[in-house]
Design goal:
It is built from 20 helices and 2 strands. With 469 residues, the protein is mainly α. Strand 1 and strand 2 (446-447) form a beta hairpin. Helix 7 packs antiparallel against helix 8 (166-198).
């Protein structure tokens, strides 16, 4: 990636004067205000394309759990089969997210995002052809690849919005997108019931036809991104990023993976967003099995968890920006630690309440805190490395799905633990795995437990940390 003071970048800034943008911008053309209900080009148009495209990917990936009770009976799936399928979906996402970071660094988020959506939309349609447990597990693995669009989403927002609002932009974009996991819990049972009743079709046919909807939605959003999207405030990525670049693909990649802060954030994110993914996978079935509600009611309850993302994850991003303005990076880190610790305590409590309405209440409050913690995490990510932003975003994002794999594998595979016990243990893991945040240190801003270094100019990343100022 280019140095921000290269001649080419200077020419770009001069070629696109600030008065040509609908929003106020900084010297790099990044918006310094965030107006979520505006369609102003290019900043807010990119925002809406980014969140809606990722929304469709979450909708597709989590369209299977709300119909799992029906699919399980039709395909004669065992508890082990369904658990392996859930893990497979997350494993696919781990590798695709790691790859998506460097791809965004070199191709730009628009092409990377749209290409992945177009490649994976036929896979969700192929769910209708599944006839065996192994095929079901394979489909879930391949559909999970689409969640790598999260990395493109966050990369895109970090390229469009300045440091003073980037936490909010990342939070709202990812939060609104993540509501896809809640919307699908609500919508897919309704689509299934409508097809079965309106066309008088058997259950085994109705659930298969239901997957036409998420497949078409995902492909449509990809076309919109390609048609109307713009990678950078100054234009297309390929026109602005290569000639003056001094860093090769591998230099950018290795620079990113050597930054320990990215790995600490990956661990933290693994037990905020990773826990959220696991909860999305199990919560409908949890209420269906433990409290005896029907599939529509279970889906409606589960949808509350995912739909809370509409405001909870953006709140985390906004809170991160507020703490950043008031207390600097130390405020962002303390805010993340406190929010995620409270989320862990609520998760612990969720597994121990025994009544339906108490469980719903605790689940809703838990959803707000765990999703806000995810927003707070990506309020820190843009400041770790400007040079390797895509790589850091990919590492952190893949940490989220790795956390989901770990919790699903350890706590919800087989019959070793009941689901309520597994949920409580997951809360304990959240609390413990948030503690390493205290190890993060930025020479010019400090960390949770100490102030900035007096020798911060010796840090080779110094030029890339000025996003916060």
């Amino acid at each position: 990636m280019e140095d921000e003071h290269s001649p080419e970048q200077v020419r770009l800034k001069q070629a696109v004067p600030a008065h040509l943008f609908a929003l106020p911008v900084d010297e790099d053309g990044k918006a310094t205000e965030f107006r979520p209900f505006s369609m102003a080009s290019p900043h807010m148009r990119a925002f809406h394309l980014a969140w809606f495209s990722l929304f469709s990917c979450f909708f597709s990936t989590f369209s299977i759990p709300p119909l799992l009770a029906v699919i399980r009976d039709d395909l004669h799936l065992t508890e082990t089969d369904t658990s392996r399928a859930a893990i497979a979906a997350f494993i696919g996402s781990i590798f695709s997210r790691i790859a998506m970071g460097p791809i965004c660094d070199h191709l730009g988020p628009r092409v990377a995002s749209a290409t992945l959506s177009l490649l994976t939309s036929p896979i969700i349609l192929a769910t209708a052809l599944v006839s065996s447990p192994n095929a079901f597990i394979t489909i879930r693995f391949l559909v999970g690849l689409s969640l790598a669009n999260f990395v493109a989403n966050q990369f895109w927002m970090s390229r469009m919005f300045s440091g003073c609002v980037v936490g909010l932009a990342n939070g709202v974009s990812a939060g609104w997108a993540n509501t896809g996991s809640g919307a699908t819990q609500l919508v897919m049972p309704l689509i299934y019931s409508f097809i079965m009743s309106a066309f008088n079709l058997p259950s085994s046919t109705a659930w298969r036809l239901s997957y036409i909807v998420p497949a078409v939605l995902q492909a449509s959003t990809a076309v919109l991104v390609l048609t109307y999207g713009q990678d950078l405030p100054s234009g297309s990525y390929k026109r602005t990023s290569k000639k003056g670049s001094k860093d090769s693909f591998f230099e950018v990649f290795f620079h990113g993976i050597k930054n320990y802060r990215g790995w600490v954030l990956a661990l933290t994110y693994g037990f905020s967003f990773g826990v959220e993914l696991t909860t999305d996978n199990i919560i409908a079935q949890y209420f269906y099995d433990r409290f005896g509600v029907n599939i529509q009611v279970a889906g409606t309850i589960a949808s509350c968890f995912g739909l809370a993302n509409f405001f909870s994850r953006p709140s985390g991003g906004l809170f991160s920006d507020m703490l950043g303005r008031r207390f600097g990076m130390r405020g962002r880190l303390w805010g993340l630690w406190a929010t995620q610790t409270v989320a862990g305590l609520l998760c612990l409590l969720l597994g121990r309440v025994n009544s339906l309405w108490s469980s719903i209440l605790v689940m809703c409050v838990f959803s707000v805190f765990v999703q806000a913690a995810a927003g707070l995490t990506f309020g820190v990510v843009p400041f770790v490395s400007k040079r390797s932003l895509g790589v850091i975003s990919g590492i952190t994002g893949s940490g989220g799905t790795m956390g989901a794999v770990i919790t699903q594998l350890l706590l919800f595979s087989g019959s070793k633990y009941s689901k309520q016990t597994g949920i409580s243990l997951m809360g304990i893991m959240m609390i413990v795995c948030t503690l390493p945040l205290s190890l993060m240190y930025f020479p010019q801003w400090g960390g949770m437990l100490c102030g900035p270094s007096h020798h911060r100019d010796l840090d080779p990343e110094a030029d890339h940390y000025r996003l916060l100022e």
